[in-house]
Amino acid sequence: MSSDVRFTDFKSDKQPTWCPGCGDFGTMNGMMKALAETGNDPDNTFIVAGIGCSGKIGTYMHSYALHGVHGRALPVGIGVKMANPDLEVMVSGGDGDGYSIGAGHFIHAVRRNVDMSYVVMDNRIYGLTKGQASPTSREDFETSTSPDGPNQPPVNPKALALASGATFIAQSFSSNAQRHAEIVQQAVEHDGFGFVNVYSPCVTFNDVDTYDYFRDAIVDLDETDHDPSDRDQAKDKILESEKEYMGVLYQDEDSVPFEEREGVEGSMAEIPDGAPEGAMDLVREFY
Amino acid sequence: MPEDLNWAIGGEAGDGIDSTGKIFAQALSRAGRHVFTSKDFASRIRGGYTAYKVRTSVDRVESVVDRLDILIALTERTIHENEDELHEGSVIIYDGERSTMQDVEVPGDATALEVPLKRLAEDAGGAIMLNVVALGAACEVTGFPIENLDESLEKRFGDKGEAIVENNKEAARKGQHYVQEEYGEFDYDMETTDEDYVLLNGDEAIGMGAIAAGCRFYAGYPITPATDVMEYMTGRVDQFGGKVVQAEDELSAINMALGAARAGARAMTATSGPGIDLMTETFGLVATSETPLVICDVMRSGPSTGMPTKQEQGDLNMTLYGGHGEIPRFVVAPTTVSECFWKTVEAFNLAEKYQTPVFLVSDLAMAVTEQTFSPETFDMDEVEIDRGKVVDENDIDAWLDEKGRFQAHFAAADGISPRAFPGTTDGAHMTTGLEHDELGRRTEDTDVRIEQVDKRQRKVETAREQEDFDYREFGDPDADTLVISWGSNEGALREGLTLLEEDGYDVRFLSVPYIFPRPDLSEEIEAAEDVIVVECNATGQFADVIEHDVLERVQRINKYNGVRFKADELATEIKQTLDTPAEATQ
């Protein structure tokens, strides 16, 4: 790990194909800044992404990376971290990826509390399939597959996380570069599963949840007297469905990551040339 | 008195049938007798008929037969369920004092031994030991030295304290003495030997093989009959620096294993048919990301949830063809319990050498069958590890492009790229299920697409050159009748051959553990007059692939660069094909 890592070291030479103005640019920049700030370099970092616009992130960043199948990025990240806890593991996905097809994995990743960060680019729409309702779309949001709106309330991912025993819940806004990078950095530094929902507007298909909307609506928790260590306060803020918050909503400072509780020590990549010493004991057990 | 003895205990699920059967099987194994066990069980926790059967002989036993010599019946139904296997010399042990067993009619000329199992167990310290009373009774009937049963009881109850062990030994003696006093001498004399055997089932052998092969990460979701693999590895792999994670579902399990494998660990997941269905989504990702992964399918009766506790070899096509698109893969199917160990070791080597998914296909019959082996059958010194083309800081330079980027999907002549574990300096690279270039970056370039598809397919050709995908041969090599089988049928077929020989039939039998790539059986098939393929399924899935292998070859025109056929292009291709000798396109 070198000390002179800059965030641009995490940038690949592939030009993003995101639409001009897409919130994902800011989200990614914040992720790169956070990784560099925490002293990581591309060779000890593993980025996992799912499918969709957000899933392209692994291609635009430079690190060890895997771009998987829709909704399954979190299990991949868990496997990477369990097999080598020395790696910095960051998982990124979108609202469809994380809260629809991957919702089951989301709540179980939260309760498993492996030491990694999960950055969700929440634009409240399916972008890459050209504008269908996502699980975080508003109830009356009209799309090609929901002409009268989805007619069901949006998923509240922060509430799902809190109910599942999350140890770190934060929300961020991709356009507020400095705050966003700080929040992701806190998630990376958290000992456990650092979950950040990032408002990352889709300028092409979502004309409701726009930059302007978020700029007006968002309240920075740093400018309130919110105490992130207080779970009840966090619960109240998370359940205020009309409010949009930015900052760390909840953090359990006593969090102990799953792999640590399970006694995983070091990388599993090193194995002996033959069967491990004492392997005949495995046979003798069957006498 | 038969040379081999067939023994069973049956009752309701929850009666401790399994553990009682296992205690007896272990006692036999410790007495130097070979054992082959089988189970009849239903898909429920309590109630319903269940039985544990033990076939034992001083010679190796490889299969079950339709004959029961001694039956411990804890319920009346147990007798009816096994009526066809009882003969005039059979001995049935049951508790005639129990209200449910008072009107038991023993079929045929079988001998009925009414032993007050529950009462004698209570005398020894608790009714719960009634099964052990029955074991003691069985020892007396068979002339089996009860000291061997004692050792087995110590192993089973040792961690519950000495008092429990002593009570159980006492319970066994009460059963033994009761039979001695009430029924006198029996014609059995169970021979023992000085051999020390180990007794294990196919799932345990797979788990043991995985740990021996250096598997350090296992993720799975409980499902019959694959759960024993996970239960075996839990706790044990930790001793070697590994971990088992119970995932939230099979989708998660295979993706966790994939992640661990990308991080450099030897990783595995195991499931059964319905779980394989869910995992199928990720097969292509494993293959195109060129991640070494062992995916074990312990088959059961399908389709859908089918008959979860019954035998079937119905998933062959699923493991051969499952997943959209076309991917290189290996399908290996152990044919015996000991092969479950060795083929698992081989599966890990194949996975890492060729950076592909390897399907390890077992079945319920093998999973629940416990069999005795000499410990040296699993000689750990024979385990070889081949991690393939792993590069580190010292040799990574050779694999960097002109801009210093690691070519994780380098289109090598043998189809096998270098592998850098995360953490390796200068090795950072992207990998994806999208078609990609040598750097792992997404592409839709038609030439790169073809290069990468060809590169991945070349692995199979390289493996065909480097590996020995052979079969095992039994019976008469010159026989006109050729029988071919795969999976757990080998034992029954080998014994069946002996019976056929006695009746004057000469048969050549090939047991094939490699489904893909598989040995070319064309010569063997052509040399035979009759070819019979044996498998536990309705449609003959392996027979289909073998028939396919011996069909006359058709010439092929294939296109896979992502663009549809065009008329002028097709005309040219067809002309070229017609001008090329047929054998050149095979």
From TrEMBL, chain A:
Residues 130-156 are annotated as: Disordered. Keywords: Iron, Iron-sulfur, Magnesium, Metal-binding, Oxidoreductase, Thiamine pyrophosphate. InterPro entries: 2-oxoacid:Fd_oxidoreductase, OFOB, PFO_beta_C, THDP-binding, TPP_enzyme_TPP-bd. Residues 202-261 form the Pyruvate ferredoxin oxidoreductase beta subunit C-terminal domain. The keyword Phosphoprotein does not apply. It holds the Pfam family TPP_enzyme_C. Its cofactor is [4Fe-4S] cluster; thiamine diphosphate; Mg(2+). CDD domains: TPP_OGFOR (cd03375). Residues 51-198 form the Thiamine pyrophosphate enzyme TPP-binding domain. One of its GO terms (biological process) is sulfur compound biosynthetic process. One of its GO terms (molecular function) is thiamine pyrophosphate binding. This is 2-oxoacid ferredoxin oxidoreductase.
TrEMBL record, chain B:
PANTHER family: 2-OXOGLUTARATE OXIDOREDUCTASE SUBUNIT KORA (PTHR32154:SF20), PYRUVATE-FLAVODOXIN OXIDOREDUCTASE-RELATED (PTHR32154). Keywords: Oxidoreductase. It comes from the Archaea. Heterotetramer of the KorA, KorB, KorC and KorD subunits. Its EC number is 1.2.7.3. Pfam families: POR (PF01558), POR_N (PF01855). GO terms for biological process: organic acid metabolic process; response to oxidative stress; sulfur compound biosynthetic process. It catalyses: 2 oxidized [2Fe-2S]-[ferredoxin] + 2-oxoglutarate + CoA = succinyl-CoA + 2 reduced [2Fe-2S]-[ferredoxin] + CO2 + H(+). It comes from Haloarcula rubripromontorii. InterPro entries: 2-oxoacid/accept_OxRdtase_asu (IPR022367), Pyruvate:ferred/Flavod_OxRd (IPR050722), Pyrv/ketoisovalerate_OxRed_cat (IPR019752), Pyrv_Fd/Flavodoxin_OxRdtase_N (IPR002880), Pyrv_flavodox_OxRed_cen (IPR002869), THDP-binding (IPR029061), Transketo_C/PFOR_II (IPR009014). Residues 13-175 form the Pyruvate/ketoisovalerate oxidoreductase catalytic domain. GO terms for molecular function: 2-oxoglutarate synthase activity. The keyword Oxidoreductase applies. This is 2-oxoglutarate synthase subunit KorA. Residues 209-454 form the Pyruvate flavodoxin/ferredoxin oxidoreductase pyrimidine binding domain.
